[in-house]
Amino acid sequence: MLVDEELIERARAGDAQAFNGIVNAYKRRIAGTLSRLIGRPEDVDDVAQEVFVRLYQSLDQLRTPQVFEPWLQRLTVNAAYDYHRRSRRRKESRMADLSEQQVLMADAGAGANRHSDHRSATRIRELVHSLLSHISEEDRVLLLMKEVEGLSLKELGAIYNANESALKVRLFRARQRVLKAFRAGSEGKGNIDDAI
Amino acid sequence: MMPSEQELDELFAAYREACPDVDTSANFLPAVWQRIEATTRFWPAFERAAKFAVALCAAACLALGLLNVHIGSVSGQVTEQSYAEALASDQNSEATIYAAAVHPAGFSPEDAR
After folding, report:
1. Does the CA dihedral A23-A29-A30-A31 come out positive or negative?
2. Residues from chain A contacting residue B3 (CB–CB below 8 Å)
């Protein structure tokens, strides 16, 4: 944990300084997670603020400081879901130019881990966003939490309050759909959507 | 060549590197507090309004209840007859009307009884 339990207890008791300490400790991590989950850097600050407002409002429901981080991650995931529900713009822009997506896929598919400069980072972001547009918003967030944020099934189970086996199946299916889109893009033939 | 599961893993790892943790804006914390205060201002006002509405409803229920009791007691004073008795006592006027309609001329209401 980035903060000690005593600080969380003080924040629960209504200590504003303690709450500020929590926000300052976690804001960078939460903003980073959100930037990967929502894919629009210009909206990250707004959604991250919403996460901390919800944290403030729900601190008294926190059973024990030990579960603080899963609690905060759940709030982050929920805020990302709410953001996706509010905004469908990304989906439209992703579907706009399939031929460009195929070029991106062909480039990145040749060796994603070799790209290091800013331009290739942008291309990787765009490629991953376009691949993830082939799965539902819920599955997108779940897959990113597992594959990119590196959370275990146990941690995801705690966040989603769901059975680990069910999550495993859901993750497998989402991953297979993304892989199929990745392969279709790399082949560079036909419409990506046809492959799904 | 078709991308493999491993290449997808590599792509996700590259994505993680391409999207590092970001710094929030300078006024992040004040903005959070501004939002918290906005919600804490709204909820007490809403709570007060809700309490006022509940009190108003309770008063209206009480008033209607009292009115109902009052009407009940007043109507008890008007008549203590049953419905059948009231109907029977009102039969005279009805008989008069019907008799007049059936026997319009030269007919006395007394003959109807």
Report:
1. positive
2. 109, 179, 182-183, 186
Question: Could A183 and B7 be called an inter-chain contact, meaning their C-beta atoms sit closer than 8 Å?
Answer: no
Q: So what's the pLDDT on residue A99? A: 47
How wide is the angle at C-alpha B29 spanned by C-alphas B26 and B32, nearest 5°?
Answer: 125
For residues A158 and B27, give the distance between their C-alpha atoms in angstroms, rounded to a whole number: 32
Do the interacting molecules here have an ipTM over 0.90? no
The residue of A22, A52, A55 whose CB has the most chain B CBs within 10 angstroms, and thus the best one to mutate to test that interface, is A52
B7 CB neighbours in chain A (<8 A) are 109, 112, 182
Cα separation, A33 vs A73, whole angstroms: 9
Low-confidence stretches of chain B (pLDDT < 50) are none
Contact A34, A49 (CB under 8 A): no
Contact A134, A192 (CB under 8 A): yes
Scanning every residue of chain A, which has its alpha carbon at the shortest distance from the alpha carbon of B16? A148
Find the angle CA(A50)-CA(A82)-CA(B40) to the nearest 5 degrees.
Answer: 35
Instruction: In whole angstroms, give the CA distance from residue B77 to residue B66.
Output: 17
